[in-house]
Amino acid sequence: MRRVKPITVTRRSLLRGAAGVSLSLPWLEIMESKAQTAPNATLPRVLFIYFPTGYRSGDWVKNKTPGSYTEFELPGIAKALDPFKKKLTLITGMSNDPAAVGNGGDGIHARGTGCFLTNEVLQMGGFKTGISADQIIAKNNGSKFCIPSLVLSIPDEKPPTFAEDGYGSVYYNNISFTGPTANVQKENKPKDLFDRLTKCGGFGMAPMQPDPAVTERAAFEKKVMGSVKDEATRLMNCVGQADRIRLQQYYDSIAELERRFQDPTNMPMTMGCDSPTAPPANGGAFFANSKLMMDTALVALKCGLTPVATMMLDGAFSHRNYGLQDIDGVDYVHGLSHGEIAGISADHPRWVKITTHFFEHFAYLLQQMDAVNEGNGTMLDNSIVYIGSEFGDGNGHSIKQLPCLIAGSGGGRLNVGRQIAVPDNTPSANSILDVMRAAGVEKTAHGNSTGQIPGLAV
Predict the structure, then answer these.
(1) In 71, 159, 292, 436, which residue has its Cα 20 to 30 A from 33's Cα atom?
(2) How far apart (Å, rounded) are the C-alpha atoms in residues 256 and 262?
(3) 421, β-bridge pairs
(4) CA–CA separation, 246 vs 258, rounded Å?
(5) Which ranges of 186-284 does DSSP label H, i.e. alpha helix?
(6) Quick one: which of 433, 435, 397, 404 has its CA closest to 420?
(7) Helix (H, G, I), strand (E, B) or coil at 77
(8) How far apart, in whole angstroms, are the C-alpha atoms of residue 225 and residue 234?
(9) 46 confidence band (pLDDT: 50, 70, 90)
């Protein structure tokens, strides 16, 4: 019997399609043991997620006596995350005091959103802020990746252009900043993002130039993805059963994205349109759009194309139809947070329904990440997902008692499965600092931080 010579491949191995397009492999058992000797062998991927207007007062978790508690309950608004309690940490008691610096309530949405990841005071009547945490991670880790950072939002956001009490729309429409006067343009078209990912040259390589002939784009992508899938299929003949399952999952995820982008009947109405049209009023468009954006972002993270991403689930003043039952035609989440629609008194439960819907999206994201086996844990285990908002009580515009959930231990760098109660008014910058340090950034301070969150870092 002829013995088959065993093969060894690395985590950075690439499957190459037409024109040199590359996607890195998932973790396989045959990969070099040196790269997998410890959970902390590689830096975690980081995803920061922002959702608007916080919560109705009383619907979040009341802070406990400072300490770490393994027995804790998520608020009703976040019950969709109950299956992941052992893989997340709930932090209570934090505030973002730089957002409070200003003329009372003037510009409070802009201040809260603009310094969500910078934790620095914003300039009124101009444009000046700090560098956001995601861009600090990108500067530290991004040189080895084709895309240093992804800055994302959900399709069909309709942000206004007015300045909120002298604070420009750049603040309340963005959370990612590369410098005092530079924000990162958000990507909100999954089709364009997918084009960018499939034309990415891989680790440390320059991105491929997109095909200038728009009419040939679909054929180009079909050829690229077909070639990548063919290589994955050939590799399956050389690996064991467990690796074949992982490769099949990898193959299926690429094939599913390919199908969704090339079959218009399986895409939301606005995908690929230069001028997005309004989604239907009878429901489903927002969830379909957010799922597609999340799935595309996960390909970038899973395939090793970027180390860090941010995602704004919506803006504070966005006019969007969420497609939820009993909320058809209600598209102004800011108004609902104050119990009004078009200036007419309404019920807060509609707002609670929207924010509950946000957490159902987060649950979908964590479920997808936790389903990816990377050998030394799941993709969720080896990543850090930071979820927060600009307010604790959105009705009162309070930057106190901010909601904060951190999912994933970052490969064992952060403690999970607990509630950490910190003294009231502890800077939220402390938790941001912990995340950056877990991602390999050697910093001792960030914004108005006073230290780290006790018990969060291992």
Answers:
(1) 436
(2) 10
(3) 67, 92
(4) 18
(5) 190-198, 217-236, 241-262
(6) 404
(7) helix
(8) 14
(9) very high
61 — phi, psi (to 5°)? -90, 130
Tokens at 337, concatenated: 């947070």
> Does 87 or 28 have the greater pLDDT score?
87
Element (H, E) at 14: strand 14-16
Beta bridge partners of 167: 164
pTM, 2 dp = 0.77
Q: 182: part of which helix (H) or strand (E)? A: strand 182-183
pLDDT for residue 21: 54
Question: For residue 51, with 0-12 CB atoms within 10 Å meaning exposed, 13-18 middle and 19 or more buried, which class applies?
Answer: buried
Query: Long-range contacts: 393-397, Cβ < 8 Å, 24+?
Result: 393/54, 393/55, 393/56, 393/57, 393/60, 394/52, 394/53, 394/54, 394/55, 394/56, 394/337, 394/351, 395/56, 395/57, 395/337, 395/338, 395/339, 395/348, 396/57, 397/105, 397/108, 397/109, 397/112
- Residue 205 corresponds to which tokens in the numbers above? 């390589």
Query: Residue 448 in contact with residue 98, Cβ under 8 Å?
Result: yes
C-alpha closest to that of 27 among 378, 412, 409, 380 = 378
Is the pLDDT assigned to residue 281 strictly greater than 60? no
Instruction: With both helix axes pointing from N to C terminus, report the angle between 285-302 and 241-262 in degrees, rounded to the nearest 10.
Output: 130
Short-list 360, 282, 358, 359, CA closest to 325: 282
